[in-house]
Amino acid sequence: QVQLVESGGGLVQAGDSLRLSCKASGRTYISYGWFRQAPGKEREFVASIRGGDGYARYADFVKGRFTISRDNAKNTVYLQMNSLKPEDTAVYYCAVDQLGLGYDAWGQGTQVTVSS
């Protein structure tokens, strides 16, 4: 069973930066993703990165501000978040796609709160 442990969340001011980490157990997975869920809203995709070639994708609302990266040796994925805005406030979740069929394992989430 895959275990995903997120860390790095916290309370920051608008314009600040945070780096989230997601440590995964087991092997290198097909894809790693970051998602977020704000109060009263549905969970939404933020960014993903393929475990093999490192190809990354981003939601339009984070392009130019967030960067996803991975360290395969540590089986850890990072989300560098710069120029944070109050609307980035959410619980951020890490997920992995084990079989190429979609994200099928999730972490417990880490809270990010951005004050104005």
Written account of the structure:
The structure is a single chain. The protein is mainly beta and 116 residues long. The protein has no helices and 11 strands. Strands 2, 4, 5, 6, 9, 10 and 11 form a 7-stranded mixed β-sheet that branches. The protein has a 4-stranded antiparallel β-sheet with strand order 1-3-8-7, with no helix packed on it. A hairpin with a 6-residue loop joins strand 4 and strand 5. The chain is globular and about 40 Å long. The N and C termini lie far apart (40 Å).
Blueprint (SSEs and pairs):
Layout: E1 4-7, E2 10-13, E3 18-24, E4 31-37, E5 44-50, E6 56-58, E7 66-71, E8 76-81, E9 90-97, E10 105-106, E11 110-115
Total helices: the number is: 0
Separation of the first and last Cα atoms = 40 Å
Strand tally is 11
Helix amount: under 10%
Ranges where pLDDT stays below 50 over 5 or more residues in a row are none
The overall average pLDDT, rounded, is 96
What structural class do you assign from the helix and strand content? mainly beta
Gross geometry: globular
- Describe the sheet with the most strands: 7 strands, mixed
What is the string of SSEs from the N terminus onward?
EEEEEEEEEEE
* Radius of gyration computed on alpha carbons: 13 Å
Percentage of residues in DSSP E strands: over 45%
